[in-house]
Design goal:
377 residues; alpha/beta; Spore Coat Polysaccharide Biosynthesis Protein SpsA, Chain A; 7-stranded mixed sheet; 3-stranded mixed sheet; 12 strands; disordered C terminus
């Protein structure tokens, strides 16, 4: 049994080492700001974001893009978000304020796409901040006829502490897996906080038809539909620091776990055995690490094995996630890598269990846990 644990830890190290090998530090295409740019419409749905909207608008005003239009789309806010947004939009003539006639983020984005007169659509969230050349850095991809969807990286801003650092490392793992998967024409996931797609592609796949009844998952469902319709190579990734979008970190573990459980609860909605398998594998891997604590009860050989495999685990994660975070110029002390490595398996276990809860909430709305249905590869 001890040799089995050692072998599995070596395989884990090799897997993360392989992923980190395919992570490229800078991926952006150089931008010539003197050339004409594509018209772009940025859609930002919001619900009960009165505290974040002033910060959002301040960041939007700094984006350098003359052909940019920005739609702030109210998703039936119950606080003063509309009034705050209406006041803030006066600061930038590119910003328009819309009210979604439907319910949920998907309806809000669909309404924004309908109102947009540009071919390229960008989406983000109301708690995000952007670099001034964010839109300009995406322009070269708009020239590529094959590109239908462009995914970018996301990281977190927040009060410094272990929870924020834990989220940075978690986002780094998402970026690593997402970028490598797209590079091998196997698009797996993306984030609507940093996403671009063609309006014609959105219309060709009928938007969110087929999954509109589920409030979450606007990004991942659209990714899968566009990949199925136009081919996997139609979805590209630019996860360089130039195109990084910062989102607000969750301030409490409960909120963070609820967010991740909401994301994880969609694992079975793609009617794909392969996608379900890809979702379950990380959970199984973490069960391996949790079970390894039993080695401590097997005498000194078990203790040596335990510390050996966990050292391998830590070095593998430091190698892979450290490379991603260094490319974003985000330093993380060794201590936080150690703490995250210890906590992460239990976090995945908690998220996996929570994802089956019928009481997951988002923006004050109850999300119904979907029924299992996997039919194809």
């Amino acid at each position: 049994m001890l040799s089995f644990y050692l072998l599995c830890s070596i395989v884990y190290f090799a897997l993360l080492g392989l992923l980190s090998f395919f992570w490229r530090k800078e991926r952006s295409i150089p931008v010539d700001f003197s050339t004409p740019t594509w018209p772009v419409t940025l859609l930002i749905p919001f619900r009960n974001e009165e505290k974040n909207i002033p910060i959002l608008v301040d960041s939007l005003r700094k984006i350098v893009s003359p052909e940019l239009k920005i739609f702030l789309i109210d998703d039936q806010s119950t606080d003063a978000s509309w009034e705050v947004a209406f006041k803030c939009m006066q600061q930038d003539s590119r910003i328009s304020l819309l009210s979604s006639p439907g319910e949920g983020k998907k309806d809000a984005i669909s309404y924004g796409v309908l109102q947009a007169d540009s071919e390229w659509i960008l989406t983000s969230d109301a708690d995000c901040q952007f670099s001034p050349d964010w839109v300009a850095r995406l322009q070269p991809y708009f020239e590529k006829d094959a590109a239908q969807l462009i995914a970018g990286a996301v990281q977190v801003n927040g009060k410094e502490g272990f929870l924020t650092v834990f989220q940075r490392l978690d986002w780094a793992s998402i970026a690593l897996v997402s970028q490598v998967a797209m590079d091998f024409d196997r698009p797996l996931m993306c984030s609507a906080a940093n996403l671009a797609f063609r309006k014609s592609a959105f219309e060709a796949v009928n938007g969110y038809e087929g999954n509109k009844n589920y409030l979450s998952g606007d990004d991942e469902f659209l990714l899968k539909k566009i990949a199925d319709r136009f081919g996997n190579d139609s979805c590209v990734a630019d996860f360089s620091s130039h195109n990084l979008v910062l989102t607000q970190a969750e301030n409490a573990w409960r909120d963070f776990l609820n967010q991740r459980a909401r994301w994880a609860s969609k694992w079975n909605l793609h009617n794909s055995v392969l996608h379900a398998f890809q979702a379950v594998i990380p959970f199984v891997i973490q069960l391996f690490w949790i079970a390894s604590w039993g080695l401590l009860g097997l005498g000194w050989e078990g203790v040596v094995c335990f510390f050996s495999i966990w050292t391998v685990k830590l070095l593998a994660e430091r190698l892979a996630l450290g490379k991603v975070l260094r490319s974003f110029e985000i330093p993380v002390p060794w201590f936080h890598y150690v703490m995250t490595s210890l906590v992460h398996p239990w976090y995945i276990l908690a998220v996996g269990i929570w994802s089956f809860s019928p009481r997951i909430r988002w923006k004050g709305r109850l999300i119904e846990t979907p029924k299992v249905k996997v039919e194809r590869l």
